[in-house]
Specification:
- The protein is of the alpha/beta class.
- It folds into four domains: 96 residues, Beta Barrel (Elongation Factor Tu (Ef-tu), domain 3); 223 residues, P-loop containing nucleotide triphosphate hydrolases (Rossmann fold), CATH 3.40.50; 213 residues, 3-Layer(aba) Sandwich (Rossmann fold); 31 residues.
- Helices cover 36% and strands 20% of the residues.
- It contains 23 helices and 22 strands.
- The strands form four sheets. The chain has an eight-stranded parallel sheet, with helices on both faces. The protein has a six-stranded antiparallel barrel with strand order 1-2-5-4-3-6.
- The two termini are 23 Å apart.
- The N terminus and C terminus are likely disordered.
- It comes from Methanosarcina mazei.
């Protein structure tokens, strides 16, 4: 693809006819990359199969785990096979949708037909690319090129003059804080669109619930959507929680994660058997962006309002899937967290910019921001407030969060003071200084890295938390910005993963939280990798935790003058001030000979130019035939 961000017409966040053409070309390129995913596969174990009945239909849930052999399979290093929520996969000749994937190894697929798996066998897991959905996005963009007068098009092009808000008065729930009330009020009064910024833990689901109640109370039909199944189910669960809205007026289209939102199970309409009369009677319809088209019969059959949750992580074409079927829209998200996921990470930056971020820049008069967080320890929240959200006014931690009880951990079984620091929940930030060597490996889009000594330190930390002081493994998450490091940790930490510890990339863990988060940074300098050019990566990593953040990294990563180094420097200072800094080799973990031998093999093969050329030659032959 041609990359040129210097054209005058492309400098602004607003779209144009030329940009739409380039978006269409990019989507065509994305289709090619998606097709390549079918060339790779993983082997997986079947952990369990459960069935659940919805009306006259039965859904089958399969819990799977990637086999160890597949995790160390070389292809994963070059052309990673990525498992994410909302993606479809083929296994044993059946297609299932991924509805849960908090760990890089364990995931859940939902099937609409009876499954027949042998628990003693390994099965091939293959990706089913969403080509039809991409084609639908292309058609919407093509229609935008043709149409001349259209409110949505003028909004996208930055030529729209927002309509004034109505002066209606609403009795908003008194339990909401002031910023939540203001955001809800503006969204209710808007006649076209509103953009609500919700930093981590600020109660986005709470205001979505309030908006749904108020919109439906005045007779407006709501489409509640997101690119994530889990986000929709959480929101619907909140809507139904206090029984204010009649359940018969709410439905869920398609297959959501019913383990999370059990109460909406009877309200689900399977995607393949939608009845128009059923949908038309519903005031609130929950659907993924990809399935939004199923909720309307035609261009005139529009919702009064669409609410898009996690809008900061959806591409422009993805978001348009829902916006074209509503009279007005509310975008709720956070462009200070990670941007949309695209197959080609080298595409032009403006393409990777979400519609949420574009409209936030173009229409400042349409802003609302939630500024009180209820998730993180105050000291951790202060780090992101000062470094990420400072130019937006920062975020506040209410007194109720400051006074909440911290989980007690009995440290009497530990002898060393360094070990007690790691498990002491009254020390919110720890920094384990690491002396290991960063090892790089070539990948399809560039290179990835790992640090064996950091893996060994993480392993020792988990031994202390899980084995020594008996912290619930399901309350712990281990993250890294590098997939090579995650793949290595999965092999080394398998016993902890089986107990419930989540091990994943920072990108894939956005939207989740744990009581304790351990972050393995791997690199010694931010300049070592382009991945650190975007400080939103650190924002997501830091804000996944509720009580304790443990950073495993060489202190040199905090020594430069760039934005990443400054944030890492503040984390390091907070750790030192609270007594949570551990000098190099303080934990003195034993060497893991297995992962070190694997690293030697990886470097021997992966860094050999002859091998890479052989792989490229195979790819060319595959294209030819």
């Amino acid at each position: 693809m041609k990359h040129d961000d210097n054209l005058h017409t492309l400098e602004h966040s607003a779209l144009s006819d030329e940009k739409i053409v380039r978006l269409i070309n990019w989507l065509e390129h994305e289709k090619e990359l998606l097709q390549k995913e079918t060339k790779t596969h993983l082997l997986v174990h079947v952990l369990s199969i459960k069935s659940k009945t919805v009306g006259n239909r039965v859904f089958y849930y399969g819990d799977f785990r990637v086999s160890k052999d597949s995790l160390s399979y070389l292809k994963r290093k070059y052309d990673p096979f990525i498992i994410r929520e909302n993606k479809s996969f083929k296994i044993n000749y059946q297609i299932g949708a991924c509805v849960k994937c908090e760990s890089a190894t364990d995931f859940t697929l939902i099937f609409e037909e009876r499954t027949d798996f042998d628990f003693t066998k390994l099965y091939k897991l293959e990706s089913v690319p969403p080509i039809k959905i991409v084609n639908r996005q292309i058609r919407i963009l093509q229609e935008l090129l043709i149409v001349k007068e259209m409110q949505l098009k003028s909004i996208l092009f930055g030529t729209y003059k927002p309509r004034t808000h109505t002066e209606s008065v609403y009795n908003i729930d008194k339990k909401l804080n002031s910023s939540q009330k203001q955001a809800v009020l503006k969204a209710l009064q808007t006649q076209d669109f509103q953009i609500i910024l919700g930093p981590p833990g600020t109660g986005k689901t709470t205001i979505i619930s309030e908006l749904c109640k108020k919109f439906t109370a005045r007779g407006e039909r709501v489409l509640l959507t997101s690119w994530m199944n889990v986000a929709i189910d959480h929101a619907l669960q909140a809507v139904l929680k206090d029984n204010i809205i009649d359940k018969n007026k709410v439905c869920r289209v398609g297959a959501g994660d019913y383990k999370i939102a059990e109460s909406i199970l009877p309200l689900t309409l399977p995607g393949n058997s939608l009845l128009r009369q059923d949908l038309d009677q519903k005031m609130i319809v929950g659907s993924t962006l990809a399935s939004a088209y199923k909720t309307v019969a035609g261009s005139v059959d529009k919702f009064d309002v669409v609410i898009v949750d996690e809008a900061g992580a959806a591409t422009v074409p993805q978001t348009l899937l829902a916006l074209v079927i509503a009279k007005k829209f509310i975008l709720i998200g956070d462009h200070c967290q990670l941007p949309p996921i695209v197959s080609d990470e080298n595409c032009e930056r403006w393409i990777r910019e979400s519609l949420f971020e574009k409209l936030w820049k173009i229409y400042p008069e349409k802003h609302s921001m939630l500024n009180k967080q209820y998730r993180m320890n105050p000291e951790i929240a202060e780090i992101v407030s000062k470094t990420i959200y400072y130019n937006l006014g920062g975020i506040i931690t209410p007194e109720s969060v400051k006074k909440r009880p911290v989980p007690f951990i009995d440290t009497r079984s530990l002898r060393k003071p360094e070990e007690k620091k790691i498990v002491d929940m009254s020390i919110p930030v720890c920094w384990v200084d690491n002396s290991g060597k960063t090892q790089w490996i070539n990948t399809g889009n560039g290179r990835s890295a790992k640090n064996d000594r950091e893996v060994e330190n993480v392993s020792r930390i988990l031994e202390l938390l899980v084995n020594e002081v008996k912290v619930d493994p399901k309350t712990i998450g281990v993250l890294s910005p590098f997939r090579y490091q995650v793949s290595t940790m999965i092999n080394a930490l398998n016993t902890f993963i089986e107990k419930g510890v989540a091990v994943n990339t920072i990108h894939s863990f956005q939207g989740n939280e744990r009581d304790i988060i351990i972050v393995s940074m791997v690199a010694k300098h931010p300049t070592d990798s382009r991945i650190f050019e975007d400080i939103r990566l650190l924002n997501v990593a830091i804000t996944r935790t509720k009580f304790k953040l443990i950073v495993v990294a060489d202190t040199t990563i905090a020594a430069k003058g760039d934005k990443t180094s400054k944030i890492m420097g503040i984390i390091n200072s907070v750790a030192r001030a609270s007594g949570g800094y551990l000098i190099k080799n303080a934990l003195n973990p034993p060497l893991n000979t297995e992962i070190r031998e694997d690293a030697r093999k990886d470097r021997t093969i992966a860094n050999t130019e002859k091998f890479l050329e052989r792989e490229r030659k195979k790819l060319r032959l595959n294209k030819r035939y």
